[in-house]
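ok so heres the complex, two chains, lmk if somethin looks off
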Amino acid sequence: MGAIYRREIGAFFTSSIAYVFLAVFYLITGFFFTMDNLAAGSTSLASVFSTMFVISIFLIPILTMRLFSEEKKQRTDQGLLTAPVSLTGIVLGKYFAALTMFLIATAIVFIFGVILSLFGTVAWMTLLSNFLAIVLVGAAFIAVGLFISSLTENQIAAAVASMVVLLMFFLVDTLAARVSMSWLQSLLYDLSFYTRYYEFTCGIFNLSSVLFFISAAVLFNFFTVRVFEKRRWS
Amino acid sequence: MIEVRNLTKHYGDKKAVNDISFTVEDGEILGFLGPNGAGKSTTMNMLTGYISSTSGQALINGVDILEDPIGAKKYIGYLPEIPPLYLDMTVKAYLNFVFDLKKCKLPRRSHMKDVMTLCKIQDVEDRLIRNLSKGYKQRVGLAQALIGNPPVLILDEPTVGLDPKQMVEIRTLIKRLGKNHTVILSSHILSEIQAVCDRVIIINKGVVAADDTATNLSNQVTTDHRVIARIEGEKAAILQAIRGIEGIKYVRADMEREEGIWEYEMEAEPGQDIRRDVNRICRENDWNILLLKTMEMTLEDIFLKITMGEHIDLTAKGGDQ
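and the predicted structre for the whole thing:
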């Protein structure tokens, strides 16, 4: 797992995906920080965190798209799958590499916090729980992206499909608002990533949501392992 | 040591590999021969745990690849048909990655150096794999398999893409490795198998068509009773004399090789060696024999015959033992 993790981190930087990902992430969050905090004179990072959720939908697929699709295309998966490592080790090595990139990106909020603390009081606990929330959302999204990447040989297909699926997670909310059956509505709200995330940006720390995101991450990583199991046995 | 028992792989209705069994002893080099699509790579992929078998068993040093894949994979160095190279890495970084991936316990520096020297890739260690020639890529692929010094090497067409000089080098290397490794090597180049391997398995349409030493395979279909002779003398008289040999089935003058010297092809009843008879009649008639040999079948002939579906009885062991 360690070897795969280190290789993937290296590959992010040699393939320039890391630079593109980080640059776009910083640019957009920086824009909202400037507009809604510096210009508006607010120390609440809620709008920055809301933005992060939306850009994650589009940027996380960029991180995960080539993780497995490229292996399959270049036939390097044969090297991994015949090495004395477990499938779980392979999947998690890649997963944590992508998660590390996402952590580097989201950690920008601490710099924002420090900048804001020069002008006023920052609610550090809220910031911290917000940060935890976006990391948990990222952890779930990356697992989804990784799973989709394992299904195809084409990076672009993986990226687009991941974006669509992640967008669906986001749009479930809008759908739920229009559903009249109450049981279905509450089910959709329960499954909504954004509703759960939004609570955090309001300063509510909900343990069940933490478990929800972690379960989603575990579930999709498990699916990815199953994809390889199945391919081996078919 | 590798033991394969009744290994079978179905893809849907298609039987890619059908009930293959063989054993490779320690220090033996086994050649896998077969036309494209015969099931060589499928078999190798099953041995290395890349794909599962539909039924049957593969044991690497006594460890079942399906029951304890990680345990079995530790013993194997595998060079797949397309070397699993990360094009965006340097040779050194890649081999270091493989070293870590295999959780290798050997001293890193000296082991890296040994492997790179062995595969002759020290001079490109800092270059990106993307920029290497096919020959170098192939050798990096071989180096990757050798990392960790696994006792079993499975090499799928290791000399593809190499120039003739490199081919010879790699063959020599494999032969040397074969002294203390168990090696399975696939190829469709017959001379390569003949030069390197102790034993040959010919696979055709997913089944073992022949399993023997290269020499034995040739012997089995070698035909003492078919002789080629180049004799100096009058053609008609020679033909006449040969026809007089007991048990001869046919004789013909093939072509005039040198002036007045024809090459004759003759066949007697199976099992009858007529070389002495030919020699005797020449002595009696004062003709000079300039060449006399039995028509040996090369591995190539055997291969072609088997794969073209011609009937050759290879199941009966040859008369060498």
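quick notes: The interface with chain B takes residues 2-4, 6-7, 10-11, 14-15, 74-86, 232-233 of chain A (CB under 8 Å). thats all i got rn
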